[in-house]
Each structure stands twice: as structure tokens, then as C-alpha cells.
Design a protein that fits this description.
This protein has about 300 residues and is α/β, with parallel strands linked by helices. It has an 8-stranded mixed beta barrel, surrounded by 5 helices. It has 14 helices and 10 strands. It is about 50% helix and about 20% strand. The termini are far apart. A hairpin with a 5-residue loop joins strand 1 and strand 2. The protein is globular. The structure holds ligand C2E and magnesium ion (2 copies). One magnesium ion (MG) binds next to strand 6.
Length: about 300
């Protein structure tokens, strides 16, 4: 009853399938008219997204990362936004999944890499003391794209030191196509770029991969950071991740740090770095240049000396 010709039936079935997949798979889903509206919207948005690089509608924002013991800005994370001509500035959570579905995330990701490397070059030229700038990499780029070539090109074009570039991958993205991903990551590592695991603790961590991958850094997911000052379980997880990472020789950065209390507690637990609204929201590159120029190191005292001494 959901169409009078094969084409309509197929496209409506596809809409129902999409809904089932986005709700976690393994379920039955009937088509509805309301679904068609949403499917149309999605198609329109996807078609527009495919033009975004060509039309110069993507923007790269940067969020500073602070070393907890020196209080200095030592890094930044590049976060993409889409300046849609009608809808305004769109957050990545609303279009990255769409870009991943259509494969466009490879083109988009190349743009992000190139743009970030140019920004790194500019900041290096200004003598700003950033150790590295991190770029988020999608699972699709890892398993399907020619990520190694793209990274090589971006490094070559800008002439920046490979160690200035950090790639953020998620645990689940490695699991998507483990063999191919591990191979790609090994080749990236050989280029000299830094690797970090994003949203650590939320996916399926295989600790053996962690070692195999030779990552440099773990990013503690903000879900654990958010309640760590009020929820003992979360505080324990944060503590355990820091201990685990340090014993593997990795640097630890906490994301989503919003309050001084969180910063103090992280410092007491010997977390290395922090990133979050407490320092700054993600802002355009030029704004971050300004921000870094005026930035005074933040002194984060050890909250509880006893906790510190026990380590
Ligand atoms: P992520 O890599 O885990 O980035 C952290 C997100 O947390 C960012 O959201 C950031 O703006 C937000 N955030 C930072 N500090 C705080 C804080 O103190 N409090 C709160 N509540 N949030 C904070 P954003 O920019 O909306 O990005 C969302 C996600 O989109 C990113 O998560 C990343 O997975 C993805 N993404 C962003 N840019 C790219 C990209 O260039 N390529 C790919 N493949 N994915 C990207
Ligand atoms: Mg990230
Ligand atoms: Mg994250």
C-alpha cells in the first residue's frame, strides 16, 4: 500500500530501512508518510552537503587544549561546521552522519585536513607554542578513503612537521574494519603524525589494539568528566583510565571540562591536559590566534595533596 510503482516502493522501503538502522537495527519498521517527509529533507540536505566544499561553506573551528601542570595552551582540536546559506551554522553531529552515509565524508575530511595543516603552518609562522593540532577522522575515511595519501599531500603542501598533526580516531571506528584500519593507522604512524583515541571509554576498547596501534594519547570522554566531581563511579573510571594510559606511556587529556572543580580534580589525578568550555568554546582560527596572544597561563592547584601523594 506504500506505492503504486516499483520506484516509489523501493524508495519508501529504503526510508523504513534507514529508520530501523538509525534506531539501532534488528527491528521491524513500517513505512509512514511522516517518514517520507523526513527522507526528502535528508535527501535535500545531503545534496546541499555534497556542494559544501565546492561552495566554500565549511568552516573549521578550533578549541584550545591546556597542559594542566604548566597551565599553557599546548594544542587545539579542529572541529568542522557547515555554514548553510539558509539554515545558518550547522553542528557536525547533524551532518557528519549524513556525510558518512553517502561517502562524502572522504571529500569533507580531505578539506578538513588541508585546512588544519594550513592553519598549523600559519600558527607556527607566528611563533605560537602549539605542540599539535588534532583533526577528527571518521571510520569511513579509515576503512574506505585514501587517508594516508591525503595526509601526505596536506603535509607536503604545507611543509609542516608531521608531529604537529594529530589524528583523533574512535575505538569503534577501528572495529569497523579492523584489519584495514590497523594497516592504515600503522602507515600514518610511520609518517610521523600523532594518534589519539577520542571518546575513550564509550566504545569497545580492545587493550591489545591500543598497544598495537602505538597511539600517543587517550581522550577521556566528557560523559565521565561531567559528573566526576559528584559521581564516585565516574571519578573512579577517570582515575582508572589515567592510570591505565600512563602505565602504557600515553598522554591523557580530559574533554568537556567546564568547571574549576573538575580541573582541580583532574590535576590531582595527574591528568596531563584538559579541553573544554572552562578554557574556551571552539572558535574560528583567527579568534584563537587572538585568544592565544592574550592568554595568561592558568594555575590549577592540586586540590587534595593527600590524593596526590598516594599515587
Ligand atoms: P568530539 O571530537 O568528541 O568533539 C568534542 C565535542 O564536544 C565538540 O562538539 C565540542 O564543541 C564539544 N565540547 C567541547 N568542550 C565542551 C564542554 O566543555 N562542554 C560541552 N558540553 N561540550 C564541549 P562539536 O564541535 O559539535 O563536534 C561533535 C562531534 O563531531 C565531534 O566530537 C566529532 O566526533 C565530530 N566532528 C567534528 N569535526 C569533525 C571533522 O572534521 N571530521 C569528522 N569526521 N568528525 C568531526
Ligand atoms: Mg574529537
Ligand atoms: Mg570526544
Amino acid at each position: 500500500a506504500d506505492g503504486r510503482d516499483a520506484e516509489t516502493l523501493q524508495s519508501n522501503a529504503a526510508a523504513a530501512l534507514h529508520q530501523a538502522k538509525s534506531r539501532g537495527r534488528s527491528m521491524l519498521q513500517f513505512f509512514s508518510m511522516e517518514m517520507m517527509g523526513r527522507a526528502k529533507e535528508r535527501l535535500t540536505l545531503e545534496a546541499a552537503l555534497r556542494q559544501s566544499v565546492k561552495r566554500d561553506e565549511l568552516r573549521l573551528f578550533y578549541q584550545p587544549q591546556v597542559d594542566l601542570s604548566s597551565g599553557q595552551i599546548v594544542g587545539a582540536e579542529a572541529l568542522v561546521r557547515w555554514q548553510h546559506p539558509k539554515l545558518g551554522l550547522i553542528a557536525p553531529n547533524e551532518f557528519i552522519p549524513l556525510a558518512e552515509e553517502s561517502g562524502y565524508v572522504v571529500t569533507l575530511g580531505d578539506w578538513v585536513l588541508r585546512t588544519a595543516c594550513r592553519q598549523i603552518k600559519q600558527w607556527a609562522g607566528l611563533g605560537l607554542p602549539l605542540r599539535q593540532v588534532a583533526v577528527n577522522v571518521s571510520a569511513i575515511q579509515l576503512s574506505r578513503g585514501s587517508l594516508v595519501e591525503s595526509v601526505k599531500e596536506a603535509l607536503l603542501e604545507t611543509g609542516i612537521a608531521p608531529g604537529r598533526l594529530e589524528l583523533e580516531i574512535t575505538e569503534s571506528s577501528v572495529m569497523l574494519d579492523t584489519e584495514k584500519s590497523l594497516e592504515t593507522l600503522a602507515r600514518l604512524k610511520a609518517l610521523g603524525v600523532q594518534l589519539s583515541i577520542d571518546d575513550f571509554g564509550t566504545g569497545y576498547s580492545s587493550l591489545s589494539y591500543l598497544q598495537q596501534l602505538e597511539v600517543n594519547k587517550l581522550k577521556i570522554d566528557m560523559a565521565f568528566v561531567r559528573d566526576m566531581t559528584t559521581n564516585r563511579n565516574n571519578a573512579s573510571i577517570v582515575k582508572a583510565v589515567i592510570a591505565l594510559g600512563h602505565s602504557l606511556g600515553l598522554e591523557i587529556i580530559a574533554e568537556g571540562v567546564e568547571t574549576p572543580e573538575q580541573a582541580h580534580q583532574l590535576r590531582s589525578l595527574r591528568c596531563d591536559m584538559m579541553q573544554g568550555y572552562l578554557i574556551s568554546k571552539p572558535i574560528p582560527g583567527d579568534d584563537l590566534t587572538q585568544f592565544m596572544t592574550n592568554f595568561k597561563p592558568i594555575y590549577v592547584p592540586l586540590e587534595d595533596q593527600r590524593v596526590a601523594n598516594r599515587r
